[in-house]
Amino acid sequence: MIVDNALYHHGRRVPVGEGADQSLGSARVPCDPGDFQWIGIHEPSPDELQLIADTFGLHPLAVEDAGDSHQRPKLEHYGDTLFLVLKTLWYVDEEDAVETGEINMFVGADFVVTVRHGEGIDLADSRRDLEERAQVLEHGPMGVMYAICDRVVDEYERVGAALEEDVDEVEESVFSPARTDDANRIYVLKREIAEFRRAVMPLREPMRKLAMEGFDTTGVEGHVTSETATYFRDVSDHLQRVSELVDNLDVLLSTAFDAHLARISVQQNEDMRKISAGAALVVVPTLIAGIYGMNFEHMPELGWVYGYPFALVLMVGVATGLFAWFKKSGWL
Amino acid sequence: MIVDNALYHHGRRVPVGEGADQSLGSARVPCDPGDFQWIGIHEPSPDELQLIADTFGLHPLAVEDAGDSHQRPKLEHYGDTLFLVLKTLWYVDEEDAVETGEINMFVGADFVVTVRHGEGIDLADSRRDLEERAQVLEHGPMGVMYAICDRVVDEYERVGAALEEDVDEVEESVFSPARTDDANRIYVLKREIAEFRRAVMPLREPMRKLAMEGFDTTGVEGHVTSETATYFRDVSDHLQRVSELVDNLDVLLSTAFDAHLARISVQQNEDMRKISAGAALVVVPTLIAGIYGMNFEHMPELGWVYGYPFALVLMVGVATGLFAWFKKSGWL
Amino acid sequence: MIVDNALYHHGRRVPVGEGADQSLGSARVPCDPGDFQWIGIHEPSPDELQLIADTFGLHPLAVEDAGDSHQRPKLEHYGDTLFLVLKTLWYVDEEDAVETGEINMFVGADFVVTVRHGEGIDLADSRRDLEERAQVLEHGPMGVMYAICDRVVDEYERVGAALEEDVDEVEESVFSPARTDDANRIYVLKREIAEFRRAVMPLREPMRKLAMEGFDTTGVEGHVTSETATYFRDVSDHLQRVSELVDNLDVLLSTAFDAHLARISVQQNEDMRKISAGAALVVVPTLIAGIYGMNFEHMPELGWVYGYPFALVLMVGVATGLFAWFKKSGWL
Amino acid sequence: MIVDNALYHHGRRVPVGEGADQSLGSARVPCDPGDFQWIGIHEPSPDELQLIADTFGLHPLAVEDAGDSHQRPKLEHYGDTLFLVLKTLWYVDEEDAVETGEINMFVGADFVVTVRHGEGIDLADSRRDLEERAQVLEHGPMGVMYAICDRVVDEYERVGAALEEDVDEVEESVFSPARTDDANRIYVLKREIAEFRRAVMPLREPMRKLAMEGFDTTGVEGHVTSETATYFRDVSDHLQRVSELVDNLDVLLSTAFDAHLARISVQQNEDMRKISAGAALVVVPTLIAGIYGMNFEHMPELGWVYGYPFALVLMVGVATGLFAWFKKSGWL
Amino acid sequence: MIVDNALYHHGRRVPVGEGADQSLGSARVPCDPGDFQWIGIHEPSPDELQLIADTFGLHPLAVEDAGDSHQRPKLEHYGDTLFLVLKTLWYVDEEDAVETGEINMFVGADFVVTVRHGEGIDLADSRRDLEERAQVLEHGPMGVMYAICDRVVDEYERVGAALEEDVDEVEESVFSPARTDDANRIYVLKREIAEFRRAVMPLREPMRKLAMEGFDTTGVEGHVTSETATYFRDVSDHLQRVSELVDNLDVLLSTAFDAHLARISVQQNEDMRKISAGAALVVVPTLIAGIYGMNFEHMPELGWVYGYPFALVLMVGVATGLFAWFKKSGWL
After folding, report:
1. Interacting residues of D125 by C-beta distance below 8 A, sequence separation 6+
2. Transmembrane ranges (chains A, B, C, D, E) (predicted)?
3. What whole-number distance in Å separates Cα of residue D238 and Cα of residue D243?
């Protein structure tokens, strides 16, 4: 579905013939030097994609990739066009889960085509924000690329922060005295962090490249200035920060898991001692009862009037003594 | 066994003299510039290999490697010939097992020789598919190499997806309440993933090389264009994706294994507490029985008419109380 | 809040018009070649930052970073200005905790702007110290940068030493016979070490760059001599040392954790044996009591005058014998 | 001990004066351009080594290394001489152990000196094989170096295969129901694999160097052709394969060890449940006996004629019921 | 304390004016081209260091480092002077401990200043040895540097061998049937190995640099020949060997620790089974006693003359039977 299609002239949106905008879809709007056209698509049908590919002369292999939503992040040259794949991530609070989508971007000298898969980041919002920042739009297609990367990486930071909170909760749970099934939660979190890394890690190299002033963006050349590089350096830096954060969380989770294992062992130990102490409170009186259950003819206690209460008191006394002793030595 | 032998002219299969095709076997067909001959062999006898080696002037060390089916993936120059070793992988559903085969490929200026070991990927199919894609065949021997690599890596992705499902199953089993011998399954899966990696990892470097535009394919030179590089870049990218997937699975399995260990400990803990609680239900009544088994002369309960039922009720009552208490505190 | 604002001339502080110093805040003081102005700010408001940014022509992206206190350490060029982000660390004894702050530094040809977030290192102190070391101040803005880096890294070493002590304590606790909850402490320490590493590791590359004689500090150029490089090499070396120390502590903690796990197991083993031995001391006499509680008509002991004492002595004797045996074999 | 000493002329062994061969030992035989002399020594005395060092002008540091059998594999230039250290490995079936020896090789323009320590690979055999492969010997001293490296690496592959079998056995043992002390076997295997790696890993770099066509073999230059490089590339490739195999085995062993640990825990769990079930079969009848051992005056069962058999049947019945229940729920 | 001070002329020690030698201390002795002065200091006071720094024009930062004994190994240029920091290691048999000291070395065109901290390697011995090896001394200051590095690294090898023995002992202890607290020993050894690595690892890079023929030793230039490089290559190689040895020991210790953990589990398992078997030997006879303690009126055994002995024999018989059964099934 073609979501939006506009022409940008000196950093300002220029109305394209109303009909042309939506119905013609991917039709190429002739533009002056320095102008560029930006088409946004969401989960396109193969036909839509093909139409756009034909219009802008996109490479079949890149188009094939763009139609699929299981790419890994990458930046590639196809002739005069730059092709960028980004994973979008967002955090669904209700499920404590990280969801993933994908943005594919074709950037040429005078056009940008963005193909979005899945939900998450609303490029229409990004476009509106961007249209108000003429100084970025003035950098042309590379400015659009920057704006989208910036938006996506900002979202990564939000997800990273949410994961950090989850790790804090797990940590608290591990060290709380309650018996909790932290192994399961840690596993789920580790899995999400792995998902996160698969989105973030491969993107670092492309961002690093775009942040280098001399990076060869054949065909889009006219638009790459040292200023653009500065912008991408900022994105690259944020990406670096979020990836370090997540690496750190991963290591912390492993440590928390080990601590969880230790805690299970310690608890088993304590349980065992409690159980043994409890058992002692029963078996020792049983021994006493056994003694007075012996059938010797000459057992003076048996004839005492208060023999029975004496025996009971003895049992309770011994049990109480044991109880106090176990308490003192930390077994109960 | 020589499976097929054909001449390709401008991306089209050209009939070779009928007899020549099969019986002459490896006989070199004279060809115009731009044409090339493609011979496919399956588990050749040493004699067949030698015949072909002599015909196309292949290097003895490469021929020795091609006759053996335990090579590691690699790309090498032997004079004017490129020699590529690929591991083929396929997933056997019935056994949840990954099987491996091997394809060795000699690529010269005007010939391709493919030597296949084991089952798995049917090169005859690939050839038929390829013959319908003239635009690839037009790239000559390098086009054939691309088509086969693409086919093999596609199969890797299928195997990767199957392994992913297996890991999901293991994961579910680990976190299910049932007592399952997950250690064994995890081990087997890890072993298969190791097998997988041994096929995939060493192939990354050759694919990366072929994806570089300036890569020196001496003797095959005339056929390497920036277009071919683009094709191999696509293969390389898929390879990268599948190898990241499998690395990720490996890490997940390790985490799942740790969770399995934690679960065993937790279960032992729970069993121990259940057992102890169960024991308490027996030993406390035993103590009561012991008390009324004492032989004191003055034990008023002994003379009661309802002394015996009272004792039984006491036992059952205490046991019931304990049972309720254990239930409440989660020990039973 | 603007903390200090001064002009330095040939390594000496030059009084700036009193009013100008504080109230004008970020006003640029005209200076001769070789002189430079140093403004120190602490947790600035966005307006203060903007004022300074306008005065010295700082890049908006860098200014945005400087206003935020969650940057990762980095060194960047923005046009003629070097922008350095440092994490400050200090150790709070009472809580055994590592606290973090941040220093952002803009260094131009004739100015230094330091923006500090959080407590920790008092730059006013550093400034006073530095003002007494004319030979460092003579190196101009880069000299100030060196002095601050040196101060910050010195503090890292102090924190590293404090962590080392903490690790020593944990180690002692792990191998002491007492039952201690070392898992928790080890976790907390590991977390702090991770914090530490996040401050220290990314700083190594910037320091290494500044230590290279030929490093291009565009715009600040006039001040970078091989002598400055020597100074930064010293900082870089200390940074290397402290990061190796902390890596080492991290590994030691992991080993200590493993040892802690082993110790828990060993203790459980010993407890189990003690418990069993203790149980034996009760159940064996119980068996004896059971025997003399049997109702056979012909049991000679029952008729003995000293039968009862005999039985008691037997019980005590057997228990004592068992006790001695368990003691000898290390079970009690 | 000088084992053999011969002159090779155009790939053919040329008889050296009989006496000269053995008694003169290291005497240098004058040779035509293209000829070379090959002396083989086994565990030489310091004097023998010195004699040879003087004759061929070997560097004292290399000679010192060659006299010692605890070198690490390396390739070095000493002036005009290449010095190669190889570890030889072989597998002793009876002890399931990997043994190590060492070959030191000096290669000059017209001589090869091989110094062997320990048993294992019989260089006399290698020499005889080589003398029948004139096309290799024609490459002169570098041909000899190739042949020996090839022989040594072939042996590595045999050892690797033997270790693979051992790992398979361990794996089977870990997952067999029998209680086996796999920890010990795994440790021993890991130790042997470490030994293996110490022989193989450092050799990869020298082989890689020799496989590069442009590698500077000063003084031996005349003999290094692209053909020689091809040969060494083959050795290098086999070395790579065997080192990947062994890395893989190491990882498998670690996984097998973890599985072993899990199995111990599972077995302990099962034992504990069996024991508890067994105990229940005794303590419940004991409770029943205790009940009928109570001294109440009014216990109707006590007066029954079949009271006693009834009690016994009750005991057996309860025990049988419990037994069946435990069997069903998998505790026995 | 200035330990020694001498002038070397063509590899020979030249007497310096007696008084000058010790009392003038660091006075610079005028020397001919090719001569050099070597001053050895042990734990100098700040004043002594300053005196020497002034005499030879040493850089203040290097002098500061040399006065401190907690440097990490490094090689640095300060103007015309090379500054090398070495950690010395030695093994104290009585305590099974590795001790560390430090040697700082300033090497200029015509002087060497060695500053030693801590005990360990006696440089006076090294000097005497060196004075007898004129061919090394002839290489001038770099020859002295080589000799000291060689001495230090030799000592590393001795320490490495001692650690290897310790690891062998631990290994034996882990797999011995005795219950030993191996966790503690392994921890201590790991700590010492970490210490060792901190001394050895950072030294590899400096040694590698000195082993490169073209290494720029500004100011000491005249003395660096390809021969010197050969010497340092030898040191570098030994360093490599010892660092591989120690890495290997570290890995072995980790494996041994895991095996220790497994052994604890296995022992606990065995203990549990022994305890249970032991318990069975008591509770089963207790059940029998309980049965004959029941108060049924019609229990024929109670009236038998040999009822009591029969019961005792029954108890012993059952216990013996159980004992035999447990023995057979490996529980006792």
Report:
1. none
2. 275-294, 306-326
3. 8
Q: Which of B106, B108, B111 is nearest to B65 (CA)?
A: B106
Confidence of residue C329 (pLDDT cuts 50, 70, 90): confident
Could you tell me if C310 and C304 are in contact, meaning their C-beta atoms sit under 8 angstroms apart?
yes
Q: Identify the CA nearest to A234 among candidates A135, A150, A137, A161.
A: A150
Measure the CA–CA gap between D166 and C213, rounded to whole angstroms: 56
Under 8 Å CB pairs connecting chains A and C tally to 122
Nearest CA in chain C to A237: C72
Give, in order, the Cα–Cα distances in Å from E18 to each of B215, D286, E160.
71, 99, 41
Q: B residues 294-313 near D, CB within 8 Å?
A: 294-295, 299, 301-308, 311-312
Decide: A311 and A281 in contact? Cβ < 8 Å. Answer: no
d(CA A289, CA A293): 6
How close E259 gets to chain D, by Cα (Å)? Answer: 6
DSSP codes, C102-149:
EEEEEE-SSEEEEEEESSSS-HHHHHHHHHT-HHHHTTTHHHHHHHHH
Q: Which residues pair with C97 in a beta bridge?
A: C92
**Would you call B237 an interface residue with chain A, using a CB distance cutoff of 8 Å?**
yes
Q: Is E38:E8 a contact under the CB 8 Å cutoff?
A: yes
Beta-ladder partners of B255:
none
**How close B108 gets to chain A, by Cα (Å)?**
26
Given an 8 Å threshold on Cβ–Cβ distance, is A302 in contact with B295? yes
- C294-304 tens-digit pLDDT: 999 888 889 89
Residue of C4, C148, C166 whose CA lies nearest to C88: C148
Q: Which long-range contacts (CB under 8 A, 24 or more apart) does E160-169 make?
A: E160/E196, E160/E242, E160/E245, E160/E246, E160/E249, E162/E91, E162/E93, E163/E91, E163/E98, E163/E189, E163/E192, E163/E193, E163/E196, E163/E246, E163/E249, E164/E245, E164/E249, E166/E96, E167/E249, E167/E252, E167/E253, E167/E256
Determine how many CB atoms are found less than 10 A away from the CB of residue B72.
Answer: 20
Q: What kind and span of H or E run contains B97?
A: strand B97-107
Helix (H, G, I), strand (E, B) or coil at C228: helix
Q: Interior CA angle at C121 toward C118 and C126, to 5°?
A: 135
Strands lying side by side in the sheet with C81-92: C12-14, C2-9, C36-42, C111-117, C97-107, C81-92, C74-78
The answer to whether A71 faces chain B, any CB pair under 8 Å, is yes
pTM, two decimal places: 0.86
Q: What does the angle CA E115 – CA E118 – CA E122 come to, to the nearest 5 degrees?
A: 70
For chain E, domains (ranges, CATH) are: 2-263 (3.30.460.20), 264-329 (1.20.58.340)
Residue range D139-168, pLDDT digits in tens: 888 888 999 999 999 999 999 999 999 999
Question: E147 at the D interface (CB within 8 A)?
Answer: no
Assign D186 to helix, strand or coil: helix
What do you get for the CA distance between the two ends of chain E, in Å?
A: 68
Instruction: Please state whether beta strands E74-78 and E36-42 pair in parallel, antiparallel, or not at all (unpaired).
Output: unpaired
B vs D: CB pairs below 8 A: 120
Q: Which residue stretches of chain D have pLDDT < 50?
A: 18-24, 222-223
Write out pLDDT tens, residues A65-91: 888 878 889 998 887 888 999 999 999
